[in-house]
UniProtKB/TrEMBL annotation:
Keyword terms, alphabetized: 2Fe-2S, 4Fe-4S, Iron, Iron-sulfur, Metal-binding, Oxidoreductase, Repeat
Span of domain 4Fe-4S Mo/W bis-MGD-type: 237-293
Upper lineage: Bacteria, Pseudomonadati, Pseudomonadota, Betaproteobacteria, Burkholderiales
Keyword Repeat: yes
Domain 4Fe-4S His(Cys)3-ligated-type: residue ranges: 96-135
Protein name: Formate dehydrogenase subunit alpha
SUPFAM superfamilies membership: 2Fe-2S ferredoxin-like (SSF54292), 4Fe-4S ferredoxins (SSF54862), ADC-like (SSF50692), Formate dehydrogenase/DMSO reductase, domains 1-3 (SSF53706)
The 4Fe-4S ferredoxin-type domain, residue ranges: 158-189, 201-230
Length: 955
């Protein structure tokens, strides 16, 4: 049961603007048309008993507990399914109703274990509450009749139990799986007395289609579906609202605690990004935060071939400061730099870039957004004027045509995917542009109208062809363009697009997508009342990532699909705070708020506030840092919460660069792959140990609240302050709220943001939030683009430099899976491994047959950069000529084979296109054997008590 504020209105809120007035128990009530009688009563404090109704689900009307009497109507209608009508006179409490309700409860209770005192939901059970409310004192039928009390529990899911003996068959779980999650994994099997909840075809939960989102657990009014942590630990004693630290959806959760231990994470119904929903990661996979692999003591060593030495915080910081000073004295001011993490808070990111600019004295700061959404920042800035998505998630509920390009939200942004699927079930059309047949193409009750199954690397060609159809068939919006955009840029772009090379027929030859499908999809998008484009890393992680982003913005402007709800250009940001880390000035050329370091007015403002002199030259990007390290000019790195060895392309180049450096400082919660090349390890804190903010893909700044003290004794921001101070640049913040105040004072789009303001506005604010928009900005570019007039820019297609040939005839593309997250450092330390315990290589049956590869065979994958070995998964999800893998396990070496090819504008790596050859093999690759030896050695270098030999799967 998931009710945050304790009030469950029974049925969802009506969105009608027409009001009706009626009388309930003698009280005049006025509610929006379409409100149920149950909700109308509850809104005025009159609670009608209920069991099958809950306000997160549509009314179902099965339990018959909520009956009422309506003047002039026969019988006793269910208040949950009866809409309130003007003039109705309703009684919710009469002797007859009391009789009926007691009778209903008697039937339920006669088939329910009477073990309330030992039940995990004792005190938090709606059945128990309703028995009390209806005044049940006796069960006339006794307890000895036919019943379900001996049914076995299904404990197969690692996170929750299904205890069929407690099920009252209210159907709430089934509806939650359908309406909230959209997976349709549950049904009520059997009829009458025999009816029971069934997962898929009467399978155990773990074997079924269930994706473990927990929506059914939240909806269950009894202890039938209960979190195992609640069964083991009992219910929480206190709670705090915080924000998920996994993906860019930014779901709000109530962390229920016992002392300093989390009992469960309950999705917040008032959370504006998730509206009470969650996915398996945020809902259940938080055990990593207390995993025994956590590193809790600072450590230093002079060489990576030395064992670690545990030291005090002071010694670690002083050692780092002296090393950085030594390196700068020897190699120059620009020989060190820092990396901001998109997993850390805005406040932490801001401090790291400030440390680099003010204390290191250069602009050598970059962030992991470099390797995911840096093309979004560039492409949207130059066309629309702001480096961010244009909408709220809720906006999709007003879209008529949804275009998903290079994104798999069902796996990477699951809670938003559920919302998008809800809209599609309501009738919105769907166009998917993806080399793979993802869950967005076909899943229960979702079927894409068009799936443009293009060859990886041809996004720009497809986007141009869509534009070609729109312009050649005059489906664009000339009035919008004339009023809102630079008309000269449009004319130039129109001329460029209408060249024959951009026609669907020409692009069919490049992309493999039939011209007619391109035409039909373009017409569908352009003719939509509201057409919205959502895109992900399948757009950005290409040599022409920025070009595709620009092309998408061109499409939206040409069709007038921008500047209102239901439309827009919507990058699905990867990590929890990738938007925020970019906003905070983590790129080497930009100060907070995307202001260029070369701008003297901006610099003067920061110099005055920070009391320092800023370098006007942009610093090094991550790949330039590696190159400079190999050249012997970049020798020191402070890396907070990022695992570049596993996440960046061309692993062998990265590790060679790190081996060339003299002082690498890693601040993290685990001894990650990068830490194995480090000289200083500073223990980090998990999101449960932090105060601060994350900014999600909708520009929503949400509070992150500390629910337990930092396990290593210091918050990440405190450590950055210590390092700055030790370097001679004192930082003396007392609380992250002071850091946000400083951010607000220096960043025009954040002027109105403070922890207090966020709390006042219900926990989150969408930037820009300033005098012009004191409550934030849900939809951007209304009336006018941030840059004034929207700018069309030509997007010429160039084939990827990663060419297929006889030696490397296949294209490897990479992506994510629902249960694991990125480098897997967190999810691999949870029971999520039950769903995905290794990265596999998806191969089309024809390609497998040609090479004699069978399901589960070991397959060697060679690229121009390197070689690794994975097991084969033969599937038609990929097309012939394309292979696919995830990259969640370090030993997979997925990035050993990705190359240094990158986006022309931002250096975002081209993870999505690598030319490879594959063949059956019988042993790991040379790289994997070397990795295993190195890994074993590095783990032995940490002291026994700090690194357990085996990392157990957390609860
Ligand atoms: S956990 Fe989610 S997917 Fe699984 S059965 Fe429950 S609602 Fe459906
Ligand atoms: S499992 Fe819970 S929600 Fe589902 S039918 Fe049974 S009691 Fe209702
Ligand atoms: S959708 Fe993203 S933010 Fe929400 S619970 Fe899942 S991982 Fe966390
Ligand atoms: S609550 Fe209305 S019928 Fe169950």
């Amino acid at each position: 049961m998931n009710q945050l504020n304790g009030i469950d209105y029974g049925t969802p809120k009506s969105k009608s603007e027409n009001l009706v007035t009626l009388e309930i128990d003698g009280i005049e009530v006025t509610v929006p048309q379409g409100t149920s009688v149950m909700r109308a009563a509850a809104e005025y404090g009159i609670n009608v008993p209920k069991l099958c109704a809950t306000d997160s689900l549509e009314a179902f009307g099965s339990c018959r507990l909520c009956l009422v009497e309506i003047e002039g109507r026969r019988g006793y209608p269910a208040s949950c399914t009866t809409p309130a009508e003007a003039g109705m006179k309703i009684k919710t409490q009469t002797p007859k109703l009391a009789d009926i309700r007691r009778g209903v409860m008697e039937l339920y209770i006669s088939d329910h274990p009477l073990d309330c005192l030992t039940c995990p939901t004792n005190g938090n059970c709606e059945l128990q509450d309703m028995a009390g409310v209806v005044g049940l004192r006796d069960v006339r039928y006794g307890y000895d009749g036919e019943n379900h009390l001996k049914l076995e529990k299904d404990e197969s899911n690692p996170y929750f139990t299904y205890d069929a003996s407690k099920c009252i068959v209210c159907n709430r779980c089934v509806r939650a799986c359908e309406e909230t999650q959209g997976t349709f994994a549950l049904t009520i099997d059997g009829r009458g007395f025999a009816s029971r909840v069934s997962a898929s075809q009467n399978e155990s939960f773990i074997e079924s289609e269930c994706v473990s989102c927990g929506a059914c657990v939240d909806a269950c009014p009894t202890a039938t579906l209960t979190e195992k942590t609640v069964i083991i630990m009992g219910q929480g004693e206190h709670s705090k609202i915080t924000t998920c630290a996994y993906c860019g959806v930014g779901c709000s959760f109530k962390a229920e605690m016992k002392g300093n231990e989390v009992v469960r994470m309950v999705p917040n119904p008032d959370g504006k990004a998730n509206q009470g929903h969650a996915c398996v990661k945020g809902r259940f996979a938080w055990g990593y935060a207390t995993h025994k692999d956590r590193m809790l003591k600072p450590m230093i060593r002079s060489k990576i071939t030395d064992p670690w030495k545990e030291v005090s915080w002071e010694e670690a910081i002083n050692y780092t400061a002296s090393e950085f000073k030594r390196i700068q004295a020897k190699y120059g001011k620009d020989s060190i730099g820092g990396l901001v993490s998109s997993r850390c808070t805005n406040e932490e990111g801001y401090l790291v870039q400030k440390l680099v600019r003010a204390a290191f004295g250069n602009n050598n700061v970059d962030t992991c957004a470099r390797v995911c959404h840096s093309p979004t920042g560039y492409g949207l800035k130059v066309t629309l004027g702001e480096s961010a998505g244009t909408q709220t998630f809720e906006s999709v509920m007003k879209s008529d045509v949804i275009v998903v390009i290079g994104a798999n939200p069902a796996n990477a942004h699951p809670v938003f995917a559920s919302q998008m699927k809800r809209r599609i079930r309501q009738g919105a059309k769907l166009i998917v542009v993806d080399p793979r047949t993802t869950e967005m193409v076909k899943s229960p009750h979702v079927q894409a109208d068009y799936h443009l199954k293009l060859m990886p690397g041809t996004n720009v060609a497809i986007v141009n062809a869509l534009a070609y159809v729109i312009l050649s068939e005059k489906l664009h919006k000339p009035e919008f363009i004339a009023e809102r955009c630079e008309t000269a840029s449009f004319a130039e772009w129109e001329h460029f697009i209408l060249q024959e090379e951009n026609s669907p027929e020409a692009v069919e030859k490049i992309s493999g997508v039939p011209a007619e499908e391109i035409r039909a999809a373009a017409r569908m998008y352009a003719n939509a009342k509201n057409g919205a484009i959502y895109y992900g890393l399948g757009v950005t992680e290409h040599a022409q990532g920025s070009t595709t982003v620009i092309g998408i913005a061109n499409l939206a402007m040409a069709t007038g699909n921008i500047g209102r709800e239901g439309v827009g250009v919507n990058p699905l940001r990867g990590q929890n705070n990738v938007q925020g880390s970019c906003d905070m000035g983590s790129f080497p050329h930009e100060l907070p708020g995307y202001r260029h370091v070369s701008d003297s007015t901006t610099r003067a403002e920061f110099e005055a506030a920070w009391n320092c002199v800023l370098d006007p030259e942009p610093g090094l990007r991550i790949p330039n840092m590696f190159d400079a390290a190999m050249d012997g000019t970049f020798m020191g790195l402070y890396c907070q919460g990022e695992d570049i060895v596993q996440s960046d392309p061309d692993t062998q180049h990265v590790t060679s660069a790190l081996e060339s450096m003299e002082c690498i400082v890693v601040q993290d919660i685990f001894l990650n792959e990068t830490a194995k090349y480090a000289h200083v390890f500073l223990p980090g804190s998990s999101f449960l140990e932090k105060d601060g903010t994350f900014t999600n893909a909708e520009r929503r700044i949400s509070r992150v609240r500390k629910v337990m003290p930092p396990k290593a004794g210091k918050g990440d921001w405190e450590v950055t302050c210590m390092l700055a101070t030790a370097l001679g640049y004192p930082m003396s913040y007392k609380h992250p709220r002071e850091i946000m105040d400083e951010i607000a004072s220096l960043t025009p789009t954040f002027t109105g943001v403070s922890f207090k303001r966020i709390d006042e506005l219900g926990g989150s604010i969408q930037w820009p939030c300033n005098d012009a928009a004191p409550e934030g900005t849900p939809t951007m570019h209304i009336g006018e683009f941030v840059r004034g007039k929207g700018k069309f820019i030509d997007t010429k297609y160039f084939g990827s430099g990663e060419k297929v040939n006889k030696k490397f005839p296949l294209i490897l593309t990479t992506g994510r899976i629902l249960s694991q997250y990125n480098v897997g450092a967190q999810t691999r330390r949870t029971a999520n491994n039950m769903w995905h315990s290794e990265d596999r290589l998806e191969i089309h049956p024809q390609d497998a047959l040609d090479r004699g590869i069978k399901q589960n065979d070991w397959v060697g994958i060679h690229s121009r950069a390197g070689e690794t070995v994975l097991r084969a998964d033969i599937t038609e999800n990929v097309q012939p000529g394309v292979v696919y893998t995830t990259f969640h396990f370090p030993e997979s070496g997925a990035n050993v084979i990705t190359t240094s090819s990158s986006d022309w504008a931002t250096n975002c790596p081209e993870y999505k296109v690598t030319a490879v050859q594959i063949m059956p093999v019988s042993q790991p690759s040379e790289w994997q054997r070397t990795y295993n030896r190195f890994n074993t050695q590095q783990e032995s270098f940490a002291s026994e008590q700090m690194i357990p030999k085996e990392s157990a799967v957390a609860k």
